[in-house]
């Protein structure tokens, strides 16, 4: 198509390209979910329907974008880990974050009725998500990143479980509950839950305590059918293109597994080669 004399303005567009050979993590977070969760009457401290909907939207995004190897979610946030050699959108940051946020939001809204059948979405308060991309140079930082998010889940959940027990079972006001928890550490909260309310924190639902880890299990993915002999006569470029296509096919067919377990300790990471490549 002929170029117009206006075309030059395109040169003002500046793409931020994410570094090659790094793990890209894209974290989404619900906008104003404090207010959103109150508006739609999420149960406190944890609404299982809302977590189910987050997990559903994340699962659908992983199905659609095969470069995602794993994802971790808790509360109103989800972090997506892209494979190191990912070439999606030529690693353009703006394309990645805007596509992830809008596609996730679309799924969240599409499946809303399935999880909240009695509460239709109200056009004056629709859910939306922001997104950021972070690059990690090695497995160590990636592991520490996911550990950070799960530790955050644990700290917040222990606090919220104690806070809402004091209010809903202990009859305290929000101010009183806040005051009761001031200066308490983890074991104080565990003790308080058990002695005053008979709650053993370790028996709380793992979805609440640990969050959700989704992995694309490549170990179980069937290996592709062998190439016909003809491949030796193909130019190198063609061959690697075919290889990339086969790899892509394998990724699409691989099962996505949902876990609610510890992802900080060695156990989870000893097996990481099956989903991280
Ligand atoms: P921002 O736009 O800056 O992210 P925010 O109001 O979303 O603001 P967050 O720090 O993201 O603030 O906190 C999200 C809040 O949403 C939580 O503090 C909690 O009140 C609520 N929330 C999210 N998920 C759930 C859930 N499954 N059950 C109950 N409440 C939830
Ligand atoms: P990318 O993901 O790179 O943006 P794309 O397929 O969306 O790829 P665009 O250059 O954005 O490519 O072009 C959008 C295409 O969508 C148009 O070429 C046209 O085929 C179609 N399209 C968009 N809006 C309309 C419309 N109102 N009526 C008919 N076709 C439309
Ligand atoms: Mg935030
Ligand atoms: Mg938020
Ligand atoms: Mg949040
Ligand atoms: Mg387009």
UniProtKB/TrEMBL annotation:
Keyword Magnesium part of the UniProt annotation: yes
Domain Thg1 C-terminal: 141-265
Domain (tRNAHis guanylyltransferase catalytic) ranges: 6-137
Region (Disordered): 219-256
Family annotation (Pfam families): Thg1, Thg1C
Domain of life: Eukaryota
UniProt biased composition (Basic and acidic residues): 228-256
Keywords: GTP-binding, Magnesium, Metal-binding, Nucleotide-binding, Nucleotidyltransferase, Transferase, tRNA processing
Cofactor: Mg(2+)
Catalysis performed (reactions): a 5'-end ribonucleotide-tRNA(His) + GTP + ATP + H2O = a 5'-end phospho-guanosine-ribonucleotide-tRNA(His) + AMP + 2 diphosphate + H(+)
E.C. numbers: 2.7.7.79
Record InterPro entries: Thg1_C_dom, tRNAHis_GuaTrfase_cat, tRNAHis_GuaTrfase_Thg1, tRNAHis_GuaTrfase_Thg1_sf
Family: Belongs to the tRNA(His) guanylyltransferase family.
PANTHER family from the UniProt entry: TRNA(HIS) GUANYLYLTRANSFERASE-RELATED
The protein's name: tRNA(His) guanylyltransferase
Natural source organism: Myxozyma melibiosi
């Amino acid at each position: 198509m002929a170029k117009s004399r206006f075309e030059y303005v395109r040169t003002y567009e500046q793409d931020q390209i994410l570094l090659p050979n790094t793990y890209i993590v894209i974290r989404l977070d619900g906008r104003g979910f404090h207010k959103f969760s109150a508006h739609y009457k999420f149960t406190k401290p944890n609404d299982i329907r809302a977590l189910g909907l987050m997990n559903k939207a994340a699962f659908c995004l992983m199905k659609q974008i095969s470069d995602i190897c794993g994802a971790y979610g808790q509360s109103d946030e989800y972090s997506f880990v892209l494979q190191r050699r990912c070439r999606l959108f030529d690693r353009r940051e703006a394309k990645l974050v805007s596509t992830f946020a809008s596609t996730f939001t679309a799924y969240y809204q599409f499946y809303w009725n399935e999880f909240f059948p009695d509460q239709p979405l109200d056009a004056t308060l629709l859910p939306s998500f922001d997104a950021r991309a972070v690059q990690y140079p090695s497995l160590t930082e990636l592991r520490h990143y996911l550990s950070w998010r799960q530790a955050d889940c644990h700290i917040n959940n222990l606090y919220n479980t104690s806070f809402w027990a004091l209010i809903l079972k202990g009859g305290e006001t929000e101010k009183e509950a806040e005051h009761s928890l001031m200066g308490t550490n983890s074991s104080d909260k565990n003790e308080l839950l058990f002695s005053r309310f008979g709650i053993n924190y370790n028996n709380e639902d793992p979805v609440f305590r640990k969050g959700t880890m989704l992995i694309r299990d490549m170990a179980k993915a069937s290996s592709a059918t062998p190439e016909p002999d003809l491949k030796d006569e193909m130019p190198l470029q063609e061959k690697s293109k075919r290889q990339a296509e086969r790899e892509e096919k394998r990724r699409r067919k691989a099962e996505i597994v949902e876990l609610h377990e510890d992802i900080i300790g060695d156990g989870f990471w000893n097996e990481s080669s099956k989903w991280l490549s």
